[in-house]
User: Fold this.
Amino acid sequence: MLNLSHRAKYLCRDIRKLRFNRTYDVVASLGLGIKQVYGDINDALKFFKTILPEGGFLILAEPVWIVKPISSEVLKALGEVEDSFLTCFELQQLVEKLGFKVKGYFVSTKEDWELYIKPVYIAMHELIESKSELAEEAQRVMNGFKAEYDAVGQHWNMVLWVVKAY
Assistant:
């Protein structure tokens, strides 16, 4: 739409295996939480710092706890441990400690989660009703999404961060 396709590069690969020989003005990491990819948000941010020049932007989506400590019931329902995510404040402190400046962040709403889950819900519900060999797995996915949805805004949120390297 903006006639910028010649200036953009879209990669859909295992980022842990990518090697870059240049820096990028903007890097977006919009998949699931970075912890699932790198094992540690600190290591992930350090990596992103290596592929951004000073003044470059990182856009990332990352879950955050609303407050700690997290009850064992919530952790069990989500299949997480308390150190899976930081709080919003902790993540902002880490970002700044590693040489980024937070330019803004946007917290997802319950309505955002409804939009996110709706197509998955429809597909999983069809699998369950068809009694396919994937029905049991589909039910597990649905249970996980329900636990996430129930916890959103109460125990955790997904936050879209826009940060600038300096």
The mean pLDDT is 87.
